[in-house]
What we know:
Blueprint: H1 10-25, E1 32-36, E2 39-42, H2 43-50, H3 55-62, H4 72-92, H5 99-112, H6 116-122, H7 127-144, H8 152-164, E3 177-185, H9 188-201, H10 204-211, E4 218-225, H11 226-232, H12 234-240, E5 253-257, E6 264-276, H13 283-298, H14 302-315, E7 321-323, H15 331-336
Antiparallel strand pairs: 1-2, 1-7, 3-4, 3-6, 5-6
Amino acid sequence: MTPIHRNPARPATIICACLLLPVLFGCQGHKIMARINGESINDDQYQNRLERVSMQDFQPMMQSAAGIPIDAGSVALVNLIRERAVDLLAKQKNAVPSADTVESLLNYQKLAIPNLANLLKTGAVSEDDLKRNLRVQAEAVGIGTDGAQVDAKELNDAFNAAQNSANPAEKLDIPEKYGMRLLRVKDADDGLLVLGRLRASGRFEDEARQEGDRGQLDGTEQVFPVTDIQSKLPALYDAMKTLSPGQFAPAPITLTIPQSTTPQSLVVVAQMTKKIPAHKVTLDEVRPELTSRILQKKFGQWQMHFVQTLNDFLRSKDTIIEIDIDRYKPLIPAFLKTPNEAVVAPSGAAPGASAPPGSAAPGMTSPPPSAGSGAMAPPSGKTP
Length: 384
């Protein structure tokens, strides 16, 4: 048998390489882009956030760029590091929400924001992004209130008060909603021709191209609370209230748009796509949502305290931030160790819904596009 000759230096080399690879690539083989106090951000997380950077996300950094080139990569990286800092602070404050809490917040968002289901279905937003935003929002409230808790009596009293409130913004119950397709037309005569073709084909996209419509009035399905339609566009409500899903309004509808200095009239054809019954919530359904509301009301300065706490944490000599991309290393002194004092904490996205954090908040991403407040905005379209 031929003897096996071992290189005595080789085992040490192999051991060193094995120790080094997890540092460079992480435990699962992902390349590490940055770290904060040993918590790593890998290339998958970075690329995922990079794909979701919007123009709105640039605003806080552009205001204090100090000659440092700002691109989507720098915005994504700074937000990821700040978000990871929020996670670390939440652990210190014992304010990390459970998976069940985040799921409950998400379920309430799905009820409270009329068009969220459509946004999820089309991929305009992802459920993972919403869960992340809701988790960080809950952590921000926990940090801003120093981990304060709400007792059972306080929760029950707030629930009863919300259910009996005359203020729609304070209510927790979900109103009835209509799903509709609205297509703007040139005038009533044009609308009758379009309506005839739509009844035959159902192809709103073809008619929208011909009419030159975009946005809210291109025939894309939208969901609105019935209370909003009644108060803001009563002519639309009168035309739609007796329809069943699939039916068209019998004639073009002339709408007078409120909330403008000069009221504007426009003509639409409309189809009812669904009627979603009102939903009376239970305390268990809204427990995390209501807890967040109570804390935000009880601690009126929680946003300022959150921002100051986060800035102090980032500036601390005990907070070690590393970025492995050379061109982005100047971001540490420019935006992380000296954060923008003008940064504000998250604000609401839906009346009665915990808000996905806004991009202006440290470590936050933008709320889902068009999720908005859930309230019905005045339609707009092409000018005839």
